[in-house]
Amino acid sequence: MGARAKIAIALVVAALVATCAGIAVFSGRPVAAPAPSKASCDAPPIRQAAFAQPSEPAPPLRRDGFDELFRTGREVKAGGEAAVVEVVELGALDLPTGRLLGGDPTTVNDVTEPPVPFLVRVPPGEYPVSVAEVRFAGSGHRRVAAARLTIRQEPAVRWELALVKGEDPAKLGPNEFYGYGVDAGLGAFVDADAVPALCRLVGEDLEGPLMKALDGPEAALVRDPVSGLNVAAFSSGWGDGSYPTWIGYAANGQVARFVTDFHVIS
After folding, report:
1. What sections of 7-146 are H helices per DSSP?
2. For residues 83 and 50, what is the distance between their CA atoms, to the nearest angstrom?
3. Which InterPro entries does its entry note (predicted)?
4. How many helical (H) and strand (E) elements, i.e. helices and strands, does the chain have?
């Protein structure tokens, strides 16, 4: 099943219709749990600490080794079932400002609220995006386990949470993280300058170019014809929830990649 088919349309249509007439502002700041009733364009979501899994007790939070999630052919357990990892290359994401945002592309905030990129900035450029999908042995069904933006090819020797302004990792418990909230079963990577394109790409009735591109595939890279910039979007693992993005650093201290972990692979 494609990502678009899994979206709870009733949760987001009303908010998008009300907001798309103006400039939509996309924020990486999430809620810690799925929205109770519907997405809102009138109040920005609050980014806060979240548990690795909604179930109790939560398993240990993965804090490193994220490149292993992208090893094609690796046999894994996902949701207790046997699966095999397959890596899908989406293409190059435009980062004209080097300021990356991660979040649910269908969630738009009040037009007075500025976008919130991650604190760590990278040199402007075009960087490849890939997703790690797991294919279940029995059914052949697929889920996106993680999404990666590669800045450098060098191995990542250290991983840290991707933070936005005001977040303090010292305040987190041993199994907590800062991550973005998902209300529509989708995550995305986008440059700060491409934020206004999101409302056009999603569409007032969820029939925009981005949503059509996800009608079948689990991930897509779509270009906005107005701004000329693109957005990488992907289904978010098991669906709605809150998911962390991690930054991998090379041995020389430079940023090597960003990885969003959707907590699919055990």
Report:
1. 13-19
2. 27
3. DUF4241
4. 3, 13
